[in-house]
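Support request, priority: normal
Reporter: lab tech (M.K.)
Component: structure prediction queue

Hi team, I submitted a job for Restriction endonuclease from Epilithonimonas hispanica yesterday, and the status page still shows it as pending. I've pasted the exact input below so you can check whether something in the sequence is tripping the parser. The sequence length should be 324 residues. Please let me know if I need to resubmit or if it's stuck on your end.
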Amino acid sequence: MKFQLPPIENSTDFEDLICDLFNLQNATESFKKFGKQGHKQKGIDIFSVELDTVIQCKKKDLSRKQSLLKKELLNDIEEDVKKIMINDLRIKFNRLYIVTTFENHPDFDEYCEDIKEMYDCKFDITFWGWNTIQDLVLNNESLLKKYYPQFRWTTANEEESFLRNQALKNRIRRDFSDWLNYPLKNRKRKSKMLIRKFNDKSYPYRNEPNEFGEYDWYNAGLYQTYDKGLEFILSTHEIISLPNNKWRFLKPEEKANANNFIVSKIGKINYSEIIDYDIDGNEYGLHPHFYCKFSYSGTPYEEIYYVDTDKIFNRFEIINQENG
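Reply from support: The job had stalled in the queue. We restarted it manually and it finished. Here are the results:
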């Protein structure tokens, strides 16, 4: 069953929702509102210094004629970009999101690209209509409780979801026992898996970044289970440990020392994010394929962390990462 949420009617509440949504989607607390009502906002409503991102919110009166709203919104996009470029915005950013209570339409996506080229913008412009926002909110119970307290999941839906995930977990434990029952170094079978967005149409002929700059299919190594799903090895890096549990990536010119570690980047995929899998792969790849939703900023990972390849209890959290 496809649920529909009514768009937020109050501008302040809409900005609050978007701020909370981006913080949850990016596993951060860095998104915050830019000033208060009445302040000169210089074309943005929300920003994140950590993620070099700014957001402009457009709450529209949907009782008005659709064609007029669309025309107005197209004009808003251009005016906001102009305002950002001419004002002294002392916030470093490389992506601007235009988010609105109006519905999605490909014309807005194309217009954002046109505006970027027209004004030679040094930042990407991404449009999110209400369809996109609604889908993300429906996947987050905390947002539903806060902004739609009248919305209630039925017990039947909760039970159905629980039983579905339990059945999937048991299937995976059985089918992937040759991997999951052994440490990485003792496995007789290669850990290579293909992670695919379940409705992706590009595999295997092309693979271009999605709107989040992520890819819709790629190889990853099956690592282990956790209480809610599976963990995958996404890449390997060299980092340096800093005081107070902080850490950062090692620079190419830096030499190795006792504070350096080789770590694996680990992505956690909840069972609810996995649609299905094909353990035999296909003619293009004979290793297992996992078909997932990609609900988290263009990825299927509800959490990312790093772990020492030699001492698995030595874990490094993204929240403690320092740039430099």
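The chain has seven helices and 14 strands. Residues 178-320 form one domain. Let us know if anything else looks off. Ticket resolved.
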